[in-house]
Amino acid sequence: MEVRELRLQTGLSQSKFAKMFDVPVSTLKDWEQERRNPPAYVINMMRTILQYKGMLISQSYVEACDARRKSVENAMAIMLSATNGPDEVFMEVLDSYIFGKITLEEMEVRIDRFEYLGA
Q1: Are 43 and 1 in contact (CB under 8 A)?
Q2: Contacts of 69 (CB under 8 A, 6+ apart)
Q3: Measured distance CA(85)–CA(2) in Å, rounded
Q4: Which of 10, 17, 39, 110 has the fewest CB atoms in 10 Å of its CB?
Q5: Nearest-angstrom CA–CA distance, 67 and 106
Q6: For 8-46, what is each residue's pLDDT tens digit?
Q7: Of 53, 51, 73, which is closest to residue 62 (Cα–Cα)?
Q8: Mean pLDDT across 57-81
Q9: Residue 29 class from Cβ within 10 Å (0-12 exposed, 13-18 middle, 19+ buried)?
Q10: CATH number assigned to the domain covering 3-57
């Protein structure tokens, strides 16, 4: 990934990006227009700093978040089908799942035993 791509992913202007890394704007412009090339370690350090600050998100992070979102959606669908909707019981069980106290499989077993219906 080139410096320009890094900067564009942050949404920062050239001047703000240059200031963040204490690089002259003219140097940044030269890097972006490929008149000069920064050393590879500079690009790697920039990427690492941006990831650490949460300004640059990797594709694997996005994929992990998407998988977690789908997993929570599945849990919600299961709970909605086994309870009276988003009541106190629903929210307690969903919280237990989100915070890792129970697994999706444990939730399904309890639903099979009608534990959430008060039966």
Answers
A1: yes
A2: none
A3: 49
A4: 39
A5: 19
A6: 888 899 999 999 999 999 999 999 999 999 999 999 999
A7: 51
A8: 77
A9: middle
A10: 1.10.260
> Which amino acid belongs to residue 9?
Q
For residue 27, give the amino acid letter.
T
Q: Is the dihedral of CA 53, 57, 63, 68 positive or negative?
A: positive
Model pLDDT for residues 74-118, shown as the tens digit of each residue: 777 877 777 667 778 778 877 888 888 888 788 777 777 666 655
> What span, in angstroms and rounded, lies between the C-alpha atoms of 42 and 48?
10
Write the CA distances from 30 to 16, 33, 108, 114, integer angstroms. Answer: 16, 5, 58, 66
- Annotated domain spans of the chain: 3-57, 63-117
Among 59, 60, 53, residue whose Cα is nearest residue 20: 53
